[in-house]
């Protein structure tokens, strides 16, 4: 058993041939804007990974999903981050379809059959803002909603077929209701402009998405509510748990790629190498455990707290492990190729996704005191 074997075997089971194709392409080519990773993912059936088999999808569980995501991240962090935005949005839609007689099942079938990718217009790029805080506004025209706003950065902005976005719907009395809108990417009024200036994760297509008076049928709008104590409703909470687990898998897979290089090159002492391998494998077991809890129904407010704890705990492991791995690989590995520096830089982005550790502190302390998690 080698490091990442379980992840790559799971990836091969659900997305046959993808890992081998990614492995044959230089890392920095995959990480460049316009790189081939996203289309290889689409061709391998990635968009349908989480869709139930009855809707022509892969039927992957949460445990399967975090393992596949780690496998993707070890080959291409950008691809893992970009497709995480698709998967967590899709997971919410799958849950909605299970409890609805509406159009959702047709959309799921279309995503799986036609391999459509869904971009996320949620607030994942703002460290102090809740993930479902509205990024856009909707005005009723008597027949349809007219959506305007922008999302930056928005991963998959240039490859998306659909956009899922948090929207503040303006009510006749002047109040607003938060909703999720599902918008075809080809809708008139949608445009993309450059935004991402960093070389790290440039392949995720995280540019600015602009919506100007985009017409959206009311059947493509799902209103969200909060409980009496301000906690998120079931659908929001489920999406949030999925996001936290998948985004953690992205950066854990990335640091596992660094550790794999240390092991392959036999750098450092056996004790040092073992320490790195145990750290990342232990984090993977922890993440799999949280994902297994989700599969078993732990998707409520307590599950959200546990997902946040999992992410913040593993984030500490990721940062310390990356620093040690780079040191053990040595200066010549750092100098001769940009790949070590790239992977090292990419892992630090785990701190840029919401909610931030600082903004979550009061909510988690409240949870440990018996109160529900309430995120602003």
Brief overview:
The chain is α+β, with helices and mostly antiparallel strands and 376 residues long. Helix content is 50%, strand content 14%.
Report on this model:
50% of the residues lie in helices and 14% in strands. The N and C termini lie far apart (43 Å). The protein is built from 12 helices and 8 strands. Helix 8 (234-265) runs antiparallel to helix 9. The radius of gyration is 20 Å and the shape is globular. Strands 1, 2, 3, 4, 5, 6, 7 and 8 form an 8-stranded mixed sheet that branches. By secondary structure, the protein is an alpha+beta fold.
CATH topology of the largest domain: Butyryl-CoA Dehydrogenase, subunit A, domain 3
Succession of helices and strands: HHHHHHHEEEEEEEEHHHHH
Sheet with the most strands, sense and barrel status: 8 strands, mixed
CATH superfamily of the largest domain: Butyryl-CoA Dehydrogenase, subunit A, domain 3
Beta-strand content estimate:
5-15%
The number of E-state strands comes to 8
Which CATH class of the largest domain applies here? Mainly Alpha
Q: Mind telling me the C-alpha Rg?
A: 20 Å
* Count of distinct structural domains: 3
Question: Stretches where pLDDT falls below 50 for ≥5 residues?
Answer: 125-129, 227-232
């Amino acid at each position: 058993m080698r490091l990442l074997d379980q992840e790559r075997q799971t990836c091969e089971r659900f997305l046959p041939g993808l890992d081998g194709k990614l492995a044959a392409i230089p890392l920095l080519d995959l990480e460049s804007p316009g790189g081939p990773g996203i289309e290889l993912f689409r061709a391998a059936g990635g968009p349908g990974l989480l869709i139930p088999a009855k809707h022509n999808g892969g039927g992957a569980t949460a445990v399967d999903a975090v393992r596949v995501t780690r496998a993707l991240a070890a080959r291409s962090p950008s691809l893992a981050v970009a497709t995480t935005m698709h998967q967590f949005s899709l997971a919410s839609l799958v849950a909605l379809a299970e409890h609805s007689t509406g159009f959702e099942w047709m959309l799921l079938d279309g995503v799986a059959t036609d391999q459509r990718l869904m971009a996320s217009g949620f607030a994942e790029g703002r460290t102090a803002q809740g993930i479902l805080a509205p990024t856009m506004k909707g005005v009723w025209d008597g027949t349809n909603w007219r959506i305007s706003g922008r999302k930056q950065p928005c991963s998959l902005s240039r490859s998306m077929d659909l956009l899922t976005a948090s929207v503040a719907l303006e009510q006749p009395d002047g109040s607003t209701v938060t909703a999720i809108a599902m918008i075809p990417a080809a809708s008139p009024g949608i445009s993309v402009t450059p935004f991402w200036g960093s070389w790290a994760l440039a392949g995720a297509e995280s540019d600015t998405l602009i919506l100007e008076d985009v017409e959206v049928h009311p059947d493509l709008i799902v209103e969200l509510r909060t409980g009496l104590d301000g906690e998120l409703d079931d659908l929001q909470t489920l999406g949030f748990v999925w996001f936290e687990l998948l985004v953690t898998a992205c950066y854990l897979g990335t640091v596992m790629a660094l550790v794999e290089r240390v092991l392959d090159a036999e750098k450092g002492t056996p004790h040092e190498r073992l320490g790195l391998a145990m750290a990342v494998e232990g984090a993977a077991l922890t993440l799999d455990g949280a994902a297994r809890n989700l599969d078993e129904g732990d998707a409520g407010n307590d599950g959200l707290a546990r997902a946040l704890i999992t992410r913040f705990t593993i984030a500490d492991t990721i940062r310390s492990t990356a620093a040690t791995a780079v040191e053990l690989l040595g200066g010549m590995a750092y100098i001769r190729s940009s790949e070590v520096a790239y992977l090292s830089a990419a892992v630090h982005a785990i701190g840029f996704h919401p909610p931030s550790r600082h903004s979550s502190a009061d909510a988690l302390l409240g949870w440990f005191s018996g109160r529900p998690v309430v995120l602003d």
